[in-house]
Amino acid sequence: MPQSSLTNLFLEGTLTAEEYTYMSTTSRFIYYFITQTSEEYNALCHVFEKDPLNLGRLKLLHTTLNREALSLQRILDVLASNRPVVKALCADFKARVTRPQGTPAPPTNQDIITNIKKLGLNTLDTLALLAMVKFNSAVLKTNFYKSRKSSISFRLDPEVMDVNDMWPVTPYGIFFVMSSEFQGFHLRFRDVSRGGIRLIRSRSSGNYQTNMASQFAENYGLAFTQNKKNKDIPEFGSKGTVLLNLDSQQNDFLCFKKYISGLLDLLVLRDENIQVDRQR
């Protein structure tokens, strides 16, 4: 995992390696998949319905403000400040992804939701913790408990994306891959899909923050466009993005191999610690 404000908690023994990895990966899920809209925003979207240029500007502004309101650092601070409930969420995650093959997924843990709401946090911080409950339910497959791996990878239920103006079509598959040098996504619109992989470099810290904020939206747009391009051939569209961490700009080939390795763990590997995909 990349170093963060959680690293010292791990080094001093406050967090186990498992909890540290879980918090590091779920913080990215929260960052990309929390959506908060208002009546005013929806009304403006309706006003600009026939003006795609300004509608795009509005959506970009909305995404930027959301990212600023709930930055990755703020998410990490919320997780670090509420370790008891996060530890319970980590245990819930483990119970779900290590259950015997063929066993149906347990229902959403309502006790954890109740405990989160009892914390008395503000709306955004509460949403961040509730998103971890959503993450646990959304993981269809992961190599988290595989003993040897070069990256952490998850296949997520595409239903985490609500169909709306920004996401007009729900993908068939969403994959998230992360290591100490990069984070990556892969989206595909059918089981058999074809598309490329984009490597994203950053010139500065500010450029990296911008690239990170827009990575998932960019990946979706690339895959969606590729799907339209492939409309007359058997393969549907897919795309992947690999965002290099700021201190790993020259490790492009290593990051590419780790990204592919994480995907192959979920696509073709047979390992007792990696479950068959849960049915949607």
Topology overview:
Elements: H1 7-11, H2 17-33, H3 39-47, H4 52-69, H5 72-81, H6 83-97, H7 110-118, H8 123-138, E1 139-142, E2 152-156, E3 173-178, E4 182-188, E5 193-194, E6 197-200, H9 205-229, E7 236-244, H10 252-267
Parallel strand pairs: 5-7, 6-7
Antiparallel strand pairs: 1-2, 2-3, 3-4, 4-7
Helix pairs in contact: 2-5, 2-8, 6-8, 7-8
Task: Give an overview of the whole structure.
The chain has 280 residues and is of the alpha/beta class. It folds into two domains: 1-34 and 70-139, no CATH class; 143-280, Rossmann fold (3-Layer(aba) Sandwich), CATH 3.40.50. The chain is 50% helix and 13% strand. The protein contains ten helices and seven strands. The chain has helices at residues 7-11, 17-33, 39-47, 52-69, 72-81, 83-97, 110-118, 123-138, 205-229, 252-267; strands at 139-142, 152-156, 173-178, 182-188, 193-194, 197-200, 236-244. Strands 1, 2, 3, 4, 5, 6 and 7 form a seven-stranded mixed β-sheet that branches. Helix 7 runs antiparallel to helix 8 (123-138). The radius of gyration is 19 Å and the shape is globular. The model has no long low-confidence stretch (mean pLDDT 87).
